[in-house]
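Reminder to self: tokens first, then the designed residues, so the page reads top to bottom the way the pipeline ran.
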């Protein structure tokens, strides 16, 4: 602790990202990255834009990107907000839309950046427990609140709420903003964006890091009523008017336009996810029914931390959260089919030795 820290810095419990190992020989299944890389159209436009124009500031309004997002989701450009990854977008949302007298509500097992932002911005919050099956019970959110945020599919469980449940939350909380964090929606879920036209309290957040394979460019966005978007723009322009650089903007536009490549990548990941789920279930694992690019699994007779260590010894990295209720689970990102087959083989060997 430094004597120069402010009081709030002393109380922060920062987010811990997944390990980014330096060893390229590891099979990396711990951070939900896309194993297939970005569209060739993205790489082509990035190469084309590495030129003298990098001396100039990027478009502060990201006009081309907002237009591409709006076209894809059948929205108007003033219903779209862009940021430097969805984490930055979420930071602006927490500060600008979710800091009220009543507590913010979110699931107790969820994306761990939510409580971090509550601490950073001094936001009152209540963590609402998932049920015994690790699903979100929307009736538990029928209480006074200053907003609701939840991932759909949830992370790290991979479980999804149907669109009807999202709409029920909107109807039951007309005076609160509902933020639906759709980082993994493209792997088998149904986006809530069609509800934006009917509910002015809905904000949908997405990222190009997962299904579009642009984690290294850092592009995220939010979609909602123009009044919500204007609030986020006011926060952004009081913090950083140029959050997205020229390469990120141009690459993101091309990623959104190459639907054939996008759909093919998603289909391969879904196929591999179902393969992993089937194989681990056959080994006695409980595998939650994921609609994300990862699976959340536990075995009744094998300690998760031990399996995690043994996999690391076999050059495979997965994610283990040593938290109450989920400390016997492993979250396993879906890699290439070859990666998944190696994973299955390694796990089969590990549990056969104990």
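Designed residues (354 positions):
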């Amino acid at each position: 602790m430094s004597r120069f820290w402010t009081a709030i810095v002393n109380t922060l419990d920062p987010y811990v990202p997944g390990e980014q190992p330096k060893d390229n020989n590891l099979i990396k299944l711990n951070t939900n990255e896309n194993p297939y890389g970005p569209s060739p159209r993205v790489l082509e436009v990035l190469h084309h834009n590495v030129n003298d124009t990098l001396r100039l500031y990027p478009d502060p309004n990201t006009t081309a990107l907002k237009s591409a997002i709006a076209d894809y989701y059948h929205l108007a450009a003033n219903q779209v907000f862009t940021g430097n990854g969805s984490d930055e977008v979420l930071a602006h949302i927490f500060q600008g839309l979710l800091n009220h007298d009543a507590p913010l509500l979110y699931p107790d097992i969820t994306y761990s950046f939510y409580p971090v932002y509550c601490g950073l911005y001094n936001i009152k919050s209540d963590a609402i427990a998932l049920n015994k099956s690790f699903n979100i019970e929307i009736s538990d959110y029928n209480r006074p609140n200053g907003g609701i945020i939840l991932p759909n599919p949830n992370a790290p469980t991979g479980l999804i709420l149907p669109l009807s449940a999202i709409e029920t939350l909107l109807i039951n909380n007309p005076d609160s903003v509902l933020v639906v964090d759709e980082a993994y929606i493209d792997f088998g879920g149904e986006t809530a964006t069609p509800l934006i036209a009917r509910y002015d309290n809905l904000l949908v957040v997405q990222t190009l890091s997962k299904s579009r394979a642009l984690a290294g460019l850092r592009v995220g966005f939010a979609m909602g009523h123009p009044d919500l978007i204007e609030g986020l723009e006011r926060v952004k322009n009081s913090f950083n008017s140029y959050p997205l650089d020229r390469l990120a903007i141009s690459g993101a536009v091309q990623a959104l336009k190459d639907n054939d490549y996008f759909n093919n990548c998603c289909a391969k990941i879904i196929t591999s996810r179902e393969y992993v789920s089937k194989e681990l279930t056959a080994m006695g694992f409980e595998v939650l029914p994921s609609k994300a690019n990862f699976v959340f699994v536990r075995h009744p007779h094998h300690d998760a931390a031990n399996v995690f260590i043994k996999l690391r010894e076999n050059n495979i990295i997965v994610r283990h959260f040593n938290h109450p209720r989920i400390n016997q689970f492993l979250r396993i990102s879906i890699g290439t089919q070859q990666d998944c087959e190696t994973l299955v083989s390694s796990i089969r060997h590990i549990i056969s030795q104990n």
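The domain at 7-37+260-352 is CATH 3.90.1150.10 (Aspartate Aminotransferase, domain 1).
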